[in-house]
Amino acid sequence: MMDRSAWRSAAAGGVLLLLVVAAVVVEPRLRALGVTGIVERFDAFRVVAALSFGVPGLFVVSQRPGSRVGWSMVFVGAAQALGVALGAYGLLGINHGVQGGRLPGDDWAMWVSTWLWMPAYLVVPTVFLLIFPDGRLPSRRWWPALAAAVAGIAVHTLDWALRPVTYVDVAGLYPAGYTGVLAGLRGLPGTLNAIGAALTIGAVAAAVVSLAVRYRSSDAEVRRRLQWVLAAALLTVGLLGLALAVPWGPVIIAFAAVPLPVAVSVAIVAHRLWDLDLLLSRALAFGAVSVVLLAVYALVAFTLGGVVGAGASAVIVALVVHPVYRRVLAAANRLVYGDREDPSRALRRLGARLSDAGAPGDLLDRMAAEVGRVLRVHYVAVEESGTVVASWGRPGRVDAGETVAESVPLLHRGEPVGTLLLGERLRPKDRPLVAELAPHVAVAVHAHRLGADLERSHGRMLAARQEERDRLLYELHDGLGPTLAALALQLDRGRRLVDSDPEEAKQVMGELSGRIRGTVEDVRSIVNDLRPPPLDDLGLAGALAELCRGFAGDLTVEVEVPPDLPALPPPVELAAYRIAAEALTNAVRHAMASRCTVTLRAAGALELRVQDDGVGVGAPARHGFGLASMRRRSEELNGTFELLTGAGAGTHLIVRLPLAAA
After folding, report:
1. What is the pTM of this model?
2. Quick one: 533-658 is in which CATH superfamily?
3. Residues 580/540, Cβ–Cβ less than 8 Å
4. CA-to-CA distance for 171 and 161, rounded, in angstroms?
5. pLDDT digits (tens, 9 = 90+) for 632-647
């Protein structure tokens, strides 16, 4: 059931159609009276414009009653329909077309018809484009452009209204001696007309610039609407250019009014229903080819036309049509589709970006930008572990949930490493290209992850080195330094007693000898903390065996080492030794274990297992510095640290240290 707005639109459409039909119905009679035909006097253009703007405009306002763009189209269609109907009425009257006599008000009908086309004609390239597609100016700064457009339209309309109807430069319209109304006027002064022309030209230029500004700053939805207008404008220009080159040009000019209103209607009401890229590409190619061919034809006709004739000139131009069309079509495809139509070119450009990139983060930013340019989408982001690590463009409206329209998983060696996020939904024909680009982006994400891991490892290594330096500083400052100072004092005391009290001096020297030996042991202890000597003397297996013998009496330790254990990198040996020592200490101090097993295996990575029969580590709150230290030593070598424990279930520690990375 139709609502009220639909009924009103239908009624208005009926009136519009009635005016156009009335103008067309009298055409045979006007022909019989010798009046110039409807095509030659450009009333056919007005008829087509009335229908092509009026009917879609009424459709738009029936669907969007508040659409200013729709009402602008209704104005253009209504003005053209009324003007052509009044013109037909006036021509019929002034040419004595009804029973040989005049019609009431035919002079004034002709007068209105001669100027009513002007505002309908000028509104389209000025006001209409300024407010498209949402009915508002791009910003307040565009008000001068709108004011210039209105002023220019008013000046030109008033100029035509103040001229006699015979000012129209089309032969065969008026009977001999006809002057019409306002015969004594000559329009506005020339200066005022020049100002009006300048304002109109400026408004047209501003309208075109406003479309470019909207396109650059708008989201995908508005861009697609603007694409419809751009395609229609190019098609209109192409038709007008073709009309200049063929004998039936006025007919083509009449139909040149169709593309723009139809495209605008679709853009406003149903732009999501069709993919415009193909139409836009072909419109660009058609328009460019038309301009090129016209230029070539003019050049050939001017230079060779007198020698080879018009027919041969046309043949020469025809020979260049196909190669020119192919080249222009390829250029139009690159302009509209980017590199979507040429995957090899897209991959070459992506490779160039990879070779130029510096840090892994910069690499991902470059790749996101390149993917965005290739796919012609407004937003591209790379997500790693749920966090966006690189992005390009501007996301859509977050409040409308339009930030991401497509999510493409990124796989490296079969393992997910991240997600490629796209701000627009892909066309089916774009998905194969995305499938080719995704592995390259996945490699970049993997490199970024490795770089981040390396940076974190480097940071931990620097922190560990500083921690070790601090420990040495404390050992030397608080331990060895005061000890050596005390030894020096005792040595001085002994030297003073040598002559006066030799026995006391001997006693001091004896004590001093013992304390020096103790200091030597302290120095050895410090050295052992840096790298235990048993590792160099006995290897990891022997050092662990000696270490375990140190717990005899408190803990029974069994060491299982394969006889073919290969030579290990020193950092791996040291980490395994320290972790095993810490685990055994925890087993005695905290787990109250009585038995413990230390197992070593090596196959690409050194696996260290320490399992005891104690009470376990228990709650996470009990995880102290020792566990953190063991985990840190593992991660410094890109290894893994796994702790299996529970209350009363013993503790099972598994550490894997890669051999290649050490």
Report:
1. 0.47
2. Histidine kinase-like ATPase, C-terminal domain (3.30.565.10)
3. no
4. 20
5. 888 878 889 998 876 5
